[in-house]
Amino acid sequence: MNRPTVSERCFDFGNLLVLTLLMIVTIYPLIYVAFASVSDAGQLMAFSGLLWKPLGFSLDAYAGVFANPMILKGYANTFFVVTVGLVFNIGLTSLGAYALSRKGLKYRKPIMLLIVFTMFFSGGLIPFYLVVKGVGLANTLWALIIPQAINTFNLILMKTAFESIPDALEESAKMDGANDLVILYRIVLPLSMPVVAVMLLYYGVSHWNSWFHALIFLQDRSMYPLQLVLREILLQGEASSMAVGASDTDAVLLSVTLKYATIIVATVPILLVYPFLQKYFVKGALIGAIKG
């Protein structure tokens, strides 16, 4: 085995240094928010600079977050949108991808051109709003699910992955009397689980972080998803209103740590999902990208 040369060692050291710095820059904001959320509000307000440990220890901010009924309601609405949305997303995307991956489909190339066209051009926000309102979805959680049922990029990614499956499997299944739905759900999808995991992650994160469509289509505050509740707290002074029964000074102090606790409450659940999908993520993304 050849020993690495000096230039190779320098290159490896440079890569390690750059990646380490990138990791620190990426992780530190999360560490800061986590430490700030459990810090004493008075000490945190007086502190300036980098935060490497909690300043004191207090869970008052988390108590204040969960004292707001809109947080739990926002969680419930977001879980509904994510769960039902993923069913629509995976079901419709897989149907479209399977149809477009079949070589015998008539007008496949013109259809693909029309689909790709939507990635670069759209009707605009006002026509989009008028269409959603015209079909009766405005001020319902379905306005956050149905219009985003299929993402063009994800459709192309899944279509490319389906095309990598050998045609012999489909032919043998048809000889046994299987129709296209049986082939899709019993052969193609089980063999494409890495890509399905990628789709679950892409669509799930998109639903979890979505707030703009909720801001446009929802007027009833009881339907607000978690991210819109978070936005309301951070931008419209809801943090101070959570400190019910406290003095004005205490309310101001609590609002300092409350925003950090709210961020943690909103982001931790989706972060916990990623490790379970990580082993499929790279493989699934590559399968959908290397075959044209």
TrEMBL record:
Major place of residence: membrane
Pfam families: BPD_transp_1
Listed GO CC annotations: plasma membrane
Limits of the ABC transmembrane type-1 domain: 75-265
Keyword annotations from UniProtKB, A to Z: Cell membrane, Membrane, Transmembrane, Transmembrane helix, Transport
Transmembrane segments: 16-38, 50-72, 78-99, 111-130, 142-162, 183-205, 258-277
Keyword Membrane carried by entry: yes
Localization annotation: Cell membrane
Record PROSITE patterns: ABC_TM1
InterPro entries linked to this entry: MetI-like
One of the GO BP terms on file: transmembrane transport
Membrane topology reported for the UniProt record: Multi-pass membrane protein
Keyword Transit peptide: no
Membership in a protein family: Belongs to the binding-protein-dependent transport system permease family.
Protein name as catalogued: Inner membrane ABC transporter permease protein YcjP
